[in-house]
Specification:
98 residues
């Protein structure tokens, strides 16, 4: 009779690796406590390290670029307005001083 394959969430795996790192106990002890094989726990640790070293997803970068473009456009608008206002007041005060 085949055994049912168990699946574990990312949170469960991360918590297992945190427990492994913080406890200082051997992998086989932690694996026995969690009811998993030691090689599985080692694989989770490798996967977690790989995941943490990946660059940010392109979607996050695209969103940041769009946000910065909007902010840049707003700043340009404000700068142009201030230039016009400064020119207007310079013309008003620098004209006739009679």
């Amino acid at each position: 009779m085949p055994r049912d394959r168990r699946s574990f969430s990312k949170e469960y795996k991360a918590e297992a690796i945190r427990l492994l790192k913080e406890s200082g106990r051997p992998v086989r002890d932690i694996a026995r406590q969690l009811g998993v094989r030691p090689d599985l726990l080692r694989r989770w640790k490798i996967e977690l390290v790989r995941e943490e070293s990946r660059p940010a997803p392109a979607k996050d970068l695209e969103e940041a670029v769009r946000r910065l473009q909007r902010e840049n456009a707003q700043l340009r608008h404000e700068r142009d307005f201030l230039k016009k206002a400064a020119a207007f007041f310079a013309k008003e005060s620098g004209g006739d001083s009679r």
